[in-house]
Amino acid sequence: MATDMMIWRRRVIDELDRIADEDFQRTVWFGGGGGRWVDSPDETICAYDDLFVPRILAGPGHGLDPGEAIELERLNSLMDDLVKNTPESVRPEDLIDDPRWGQIRKQASVTLAAMKEDQAN
User: Fold this and answer.
1) Residue 31 belongs to what domain range?
2) Whole-prediction pTM value?
3) Into how many domains does the chain fold?
4) If you write DSSP's letter for every residue of the chain in order, what string do you get?
5) In this structure, how many other beta carbons lie within 10 angstroms of the beta carbon of residue 1?
6) pLDDT in tens, the chain (121 residues)
7) Distance CA 59, CA 24 (A)
C-alpha cells in the first residue's frame, strides 16, 4: 500500500474511533474536555467528510479489502442520510441520542473493527 494511502487509512481509523465512542462525544461535545478538546457534532461530521471516503472508494488502488470497503460504504450511506435530513448546524443535545447517530456509531464501530483486524494481519 502506498504511503499516502497508509496515512489516509490511519486518519480514517482515528476518525472512526471518535465517531464510535459515545463517551468521548459526550465529553467533548458538552465541554468536558478540560480545555484539551473543543469539538461539536458539526466538526465531527466535517472531519469525516474531509476524508473523501466516497471518492477514495470509487478510485483504483485504495488498498482496502472488499469487507472494509463494504463497511465504509455502509457508514457513508448512513452519514449521507443524516446530513441530508439534518439542519446544517446541529446542537450536541439534538444529535447525541438521535437513533440515526446511534446507528452511525454502531456502524463506525463495525467498520473500525474490520479495518483494525485487517491492519493486524
Assistant:
1) 3-120
2) 0.88
3) 1
4) --HHHHHHHHHHHHHHHHHH-HHHHHHHHTT-STTS----HHHHHHHHHTT-HHHHHHSTT----HHHHHHHHHHHHHHHHHHHTS-SS--HHHHTT-HHHHHHHHHHHHHHHHHHHHHH-
5) 11
6) 567 888 889 999 999 999 999 998 998 888 765 555 557 898 889 899 998 888 888 887 778 889 999 999 999 999 999 999 988 888 899 999 999 999 999 999 999 999 987 665 5
7) 32
